[in-house]
Automatic annotation (TrEMBL):
Domain spans labelled VOC: 5-125
Organism: Planotetraspora silvatica
Gene3D superfamilies membership: 2,3-Dihydroxybiphenyl 1,2-Dioxygenase, domain 1
Domain of life: Bacteria
Keyword Oxidoreductase found: yes
Entry keyword set: Dioxygenase, Oxidoreductase
PANTHER family: GLYOXALASE DOMAIN-CONTAINING PROTEIN 5, GLYOXALASE FAMILY PROTEIN
Matching Pfam families: Glyoxalase
GO molecular function: dioxygenase activity
InterPro entries associated with the record: Glyas_Bleomycin-R_OHBP_Dase, Glyas_Fos-R_dOase_dom, GlyoxalaseI/FosfomycinResist, VOC_core
Protein name: Ring-cleaving dioxygenase
Length: 128
């Protein structure tokens, strides 16, 4: 077997509307509704499905809880632009910019939290 890529992941959230607002307003993702009213966020070739805590869809993780994720998202914008936009939205940067190593090489990252406290790393791959 050879896995090619990640298609989607699931976040269990305390407040669907607050999550959709944050990821669309701050991170520029597109909200969608699918399959019987399920909610998700689309970006690039990926999707984040959202489960309301206590009303998760089956099958689900063994212990789904809000605030337990640690995600790294890649942007094609400069990190300076990312910082400017986060500041404009009043979103504090928890750490960064800092150098990191991603799946395909060196990158620079900033860290922030979503409404549930999930750690969100926004990264730009180094051009060198």
């Amino acid at each position: 077997m050879r896995i090619d890529r990640l298609d989607h992941l699931v976040l269990t959230v305390a407040d669907l509307e607050a999550t959709v607002d944050f990821y669309t307003r701050v991170l520029g993702m597109t909200p969608i509704t699918f399959g019987g009213g399920r909610r998700a966020l689309v970006f690039g070739h990926s999707k984040i499905n959202l489960h309301q805590a206590g009303q998760e869809f089956e099958p689900k993780a063994t212990h789904p809880i809000p605030g337990s994720a640690d995600l790294c998202l890649i942007t094609t914008d400069s990190l300076e632009q990312v910082i400017t936009e986060l500041t404009a939205h009043g979103v504090p940067i928890e750490e960064g910019p800092v150098p990191r190593t991603g799946a395909i090489g060196p990158m620079d990252s900033v860290y922030l939290r979503d409404p549930d406290g999930n750690l969100i790393e926004i990264s730009v791959y180094s051009s060198g």
